[in-house]
Amino acid sequence: MTLRKNFIIGLMLFALFLGAGNIIFPPALGQMAGDNLVIAMLGFLITGVGLPLVAVLAIANSNTGESGGLQSIASRVHPAFGVIFTMIIYMAIGPFFGIPRTATVSYEIGIVPFLTKEVAQSNWPLLVFTIVFFTITVVLALNPAKLVDRIGKILTPILFVIIGALVIKSLITPMGNIQEAHGDYASQPFFRSFVEGYLTMDVIAALVFGIIIINALKVEGITKKEPAFKATIIAGIIAAIGLTLVYVSLGYIGATSVEAIGLQDNGGAILALASKFLYGGAGSTILALTIIFACLTTSIGLVSACAQFFEETFPQLPYKVYVFLFAGFSTIIGNFGLTQLIKISIPVLMMVYPLAIVLMLMSFIDKSFGR
């Protein structure tokens, strides 16, 4: 496989990781960390980027060319455990939480600010938006062989340009000076941000998206472990570099924004006000496009990953049927039951997350135990 193709796969992986939550948190960290931004960002990058990169390496290590991914890693405990554990994670981070949330977050941050109060309080705008959002998701996820080109070549560059416009403007005309740190970020900035990076749960995302990487390599004709291992590592490093640049840049925006917009409760508010400060009325449009494109790429990745896993596990239904099922289910949940499902899914994810990390780390040393 050419280096260019490997680079595009890395860009795809970067875009899959960069959901709305990943964009919103760094500005909040920047505001709170203030003059401790460097040490705080270091802690966040270790767990928010470093651990997912290790997870990608675990995927590469588990990939035999014919099989690999989370189920392959978990099956080393027991084949039945591998199926059940993997299914729980895919359902929890997929249709029960992650997929519908990509649409609702896009709507709340990207669409609601442009609606009148009366329209925003009604139900039909969200319904219309989720139908359109998941229709686009289905169209782009329907052919997994084209995921790399559609996300890596098209959506990711668009996302880079939009985020870049915000970051470059903030560097050319800073909103203010970096202020003092607040709260825990004043006394223990490294450990506070270290924990926050852990709580992004991007390790699970890396393990879930592993199936997309493996199948993308198969499309390129890479079916042997050594070249697959090398290609996956390169893609992971490219994604990690991209995430680091975005996180540091957004953290800087947050750190320099206090003088202009004051302390805000969350990163979404920071980005909204910072975008407006930097670009005026056009700032809201820039932020809306950033969030929608970030959520769309994550939605496509999650739907495709879930569909690929279930097709391999339960081949009675083809991939395309699973794509429609997950997108349709997520449309319904996004409109009527997301809050209730989040109450169930988050505790489940928090429970299995440490186990996923242990399995990930054990995948590197299992041969020491004769496995």
Automatic annotation (TrEMBL):
GO CC annotations on file: plasma membrane
Signal peptide residue numbers: none
Membrane spanning stretches: 7-25, 37-60, 80-99, 124-142, 154-178, 198-217, 229-253, 286-307, 319-338, 344-365
Keywords attached to this entry: Amino-acid transport, Cell membrane, Membrane, Transmembrane, Transmembrane helix, Transport
Primary location: membrane
InterPro entries: Brnchd-chn_aa_trnsp_Livcs (IPR004685)
Bilayer topology: Multi-pass membrane protein
MF-aspect GO terms: L-isoleucine transmembrane transporter activity; L-leucine transmembrane transporter activity; L-valine transmembrane transporter activity
Summary of the function given for this chain in its UniProt record: Component of the transport system for branched-chain amino acids.
Family membership noted in the UniProt record: Belongs to the branched chain amino acid transporter family.
Name this polypeptide is given: Branched-chain amino acid transport system carrier protein
Source species: Sporosarcina pasteurii (Bacillus pasteurii)
Gene name tied to this protein: brnQ_1
